[in-house]
Structures are given as C-alpha cells and as structure tokens.
Amino acid sequence: MRPLLSRVRPPAAPPLSPTAAGTGRALAGAAGVVAAAVALAAALPAGQVRVVALGLVFGIVALSTVLLTGCGGQISLDQLGVAGVGAVAAARMDGGSPAALVAASGAAAVAGALAAPAAPRLNGLRLAFATLAFGALMEAAVFRTGLAFGRDGALEAHGLSVAGLRLGSERGYLVLSAVVFAVVGTALAALRRGPYGRLVLALRDSPAACAALGLNVRLARVALFAVAAGIAGLAGALLGGLRGNVSASGFSALGGLALLLLAVACGATSVTGAAIGGAALAWLRRRRAVRVGDPSGGEGLVAAGVTVRFGGVAAVDGAGLVAHPATVTGLVGASGAGKTTFLDALSGPRRPAGGSVRLGGADLSGRAPHERARHGMARTFQRTEAFGSLTVRENVQVAAEIHAMTREAAGRSARDRRRRRRAGTGAAGAAADALLARVGIAEYAARPARTVPAGAARLLDLARALATEPRALLLDEPSAGLSAPESRSLECLLRDLASEGVAVLLAEPDLDAVLGVCDVLYVLDAGRVVASGPPAQVRADLRARDACLARPA
C-alpha cells in the first residue's frame, strides 16, 4: 500500500489573481488611450484636437469623482473649483516646469481638505449643498476679487515643458492629457483592488463599523477629499496650459454640478464613465450659449472670393477665409493691405462686387449690416465708435437692449415672445455690469464714454459687441492703444471666448503679436490672401513676412 502522501498530486499552477488580471486590463486600456490620442493628434484639425484634449482634461476631473463619489460615497459639487486652485498654482509657477503639476495637485489637495470637515456630520444632499456653498464662497471671495487672478482677472499659463520639449500646442497637450488620464486611471484601478480601496468601500458602507474597528473616520474622509482634490488639481494645471490662460469663468461652482451629473450619468464608478463624462462636458461647453457655438453644425464664418473695388482698383481681390467656432482666426497684413475693407465686406457696411459670406450655414451675401448682426455677427472698429453722450455702462446696456428687442425670442405665442423680450431688456443693466467686469473696465462704468482713455475705449467696443451674444466676433486691431498688461488680458479673454464656442476673427498688422493667441492665420497683401495655415507654418513663410512689413496706407 502506497503511503498517503505519495497519492497526493502536486498542486496545479495557481490561476492569475483577479487583482493581477484587473491591473493587466487597466494597463491595456491605458495604452489604448495614449495610442488613440497620438493618432487623433496627427489626424484631426486643430479645432477638433482642442475639443478632444478638453474632454480628456475634464475626464481627469471626473476621475476625482470616481474616487470620491463612486468609491467613497461622498458627494462634492466643488471639484471644478479645486481644479481652479490647481490651475492658479501652476500658472504662478515659473513657466511650465513639471513641478507645476506637483504644485497644482498639492494646492488643490489643501483646498479639498478644507472642504472635508463637513463630511463626517453631513451626507447625501446636505453634503452636496455644503460643498456647493464652499465652492461658491471660494469663487466669490477668491476667484472674483483678484486674490487669485490679480487685477486683470486672468493669469497667463505657460505651456508645460518636459525634458526640454515645450508642449505649447493643442496637439502636444492632447497627448499629455491622455498620458495623465491613463496614469491616473490605472492608479485608481489598482487602488480600487488594494487595501486602500477596500478601506474606502468599507468607509462608504458603514462608517460606524469602521470606527468600531479603530479607524479614525474623520481623518480618513479628509484624506479622501484631499486625494480626490489633488487629482482635480492636475486637471486644472493642464486646462490652464491648454487654454494659455486661467480665469474665474472656467471654474464656476455650477460647472461642478454639471460635471457631477454627467459623471453619475455616464458611470461614476468606472474610469470609462469618467472618460465619457469628460467628453460630454467638453462638447457641451463648446456648444453652450450665451448663444455661443454654431447651431448649424460647426461651419462658422465662411467667406469665399470676396472682391471690393474702388473705381478700377481692387482693394480686396478674391479673398476668402474660414473662421471656425471655438477658434481664434487671425487676419494679418501691413497697413493698407485691405484688412478693414475685408471686415467691412464681411459685416455688411461695404457691399462687395463679388464673392459670398456665410455664417452658420446661412448665406448672408447681400444682407444689410443689421441683418448680419441679428444672425450672430458682431464687430469692433479700427476707429472706436463709442456713444459719447452715454456713460460707459449705458453704451453696453443699450447694446444689450437692442439685442433683446431684435432677437428671435423663444415662445409659443406672440404675447409670450413679447414677454421674453421685455425680460431680456430688463436684464440689460446686469448684463452690462457683467461684461464691463469681464473686459476689465468696470471702474469706468459711470464715466461718459468720450472721456475714457484710448485703451478703455477699445475694450468698451469689445464689451458692446459681446452684448449681442455673437456667434462670430470680428475685431479690427483691438490691441491698438492697449498697455502690455491690457494686451495680455485681451489675449486671455479671446481664448476664453473661443473656448465657449465663439468664432473669433482678429485683424492685426503685426504677425508676431498674434502668433500666441491664434489657431489659424491668414495673411493679406494688396487685398489677396498670400499665406494661410497654422501659426508656425505661416511664420516660416517668406511671403507672409514680406506682406507684414510696414508700408504707407
């Protein structure tokens, strides 16, 4: 008889553990995200690359809700607010070093920890409203008072530089955002299957039982809020670098509510849900109103073959361009190249001899200036056109009132439409105050418009144009007369407007001055477009350089 032990078969090789299998799937998914980002960065046009990059950045913010809400059961409506803290911290660093990401994450983690003390005492909707109140307080007391963004209301955010390679374009930031999303997503997947993940789930299911086992529930929740906020802070730093500026408008408390709703709807417990939620938020932000965005499907402002003649001389000779929504398009040329005449032909004061102008898919060729304005086209002038008899505030208020009276108000009956128009007219004063603050000239609100400095008059023109809630915004040398800080603030504002979906067309004589703000450039010489394309390509074009040399008007 054989001994008992001799009859025991050697154990088979142990199967792959669920933890190892899950980590393998997470790594494969991360590699797929990065590979897809590289492919999209190479294939998509600049405007779409920006939207995809924004989707990944918002997806990183949504990842913070995966940890906090999906795993921890804690509801926070302030994740965009703490992302703003990270964006400010990164922007105040020395210009885009990798240390800026660390500083952003750390500063946001501190802000998240400050919001956490209410968590042990509140839950559910009461905790959600508490975090919303904290976000609104931070927005009002820090973001909107100049403590975070200074007097200009915005900070310049430099592109990140890694190993000497500066990621200053949307394409570079798309790949970087994909890498950060993949790393954070993989870390969360591994964390979920480890001791800390089990602790977070236990804390969600029964805080009382955790306390009975010796866990300091208050400290654990503070740590959870801090880690989630640190993830959001990374996204804030990336968002600032992608936009080129950081301002309060991008980190509102109500934006955090939209983010949470999308994250929950798309799957708050999964990395995939975070990606879908971030993409949805980026799409909605591009399309959202103040009637920004383009309901026609993204065609924007399209001009083709525009010709304007003065006698036998062609001031504009077959010129064309495309200004896409969510894009800053530059029109560059020396004095006398025909920029203002071209803008006049686009906006209606000057009827061209040939060519077509379309906005949002609608043909505006032959339409009067007021008809083009009602369709969503607004402009400023090379020579400021302020209403000198009115105050600065009244200049913007009357623009908002005209817009309220002439727009197509939604309503089921004529009476309902009249009521909506009256409501819009009544809100014009508040809209004027908000726009003056946004362009940075609120201090001049009560002064007669004819008495303000030249730079403020330029910004007043811009605020008045914004009061019409434009789809396409045409700017004729808006930086003329502005100081260096005012010019930087204007660049930040134009990037903000583009991120909201406006098609911005910026006419300037100096090529170098617009390289940092424009997505696409058109160079005009003697009324003809002689070069066009991305800024780096146009800068290298000798014809563009020659065309931008000063010449008499």
UniProtKB/TrEMBL annotation:
Coiled coil: none annotated. Residues 354-374 are annotated as: Disordered. Residues 301-551 form the ABC transporter domain. The keyword Transmembrane helix applies. The chain crosses the membrane at residues 26-44, 51-75, 95-115, 127-151, 171-191, 222-242, 254-284. InterPro entries: AAA+_ATPase, ABC_AA/LPS_Transport, ABC_transp_permease, ABC_transporter-like_ATP-bd, P-loop_NTPase. It is found in: Cell membrane. SUPFAM superfamilies: P-loop containing nucleoside triphosphate hydrolases (SSF52540). GO terms for molecular function: ATP binding. Gene3D superfamilies: P-loop containing nucleotide triphosphate hydrolases. The keyword Membrane applies. Its main location: membrane. This is ATP-binding cassette domain-containing protein.
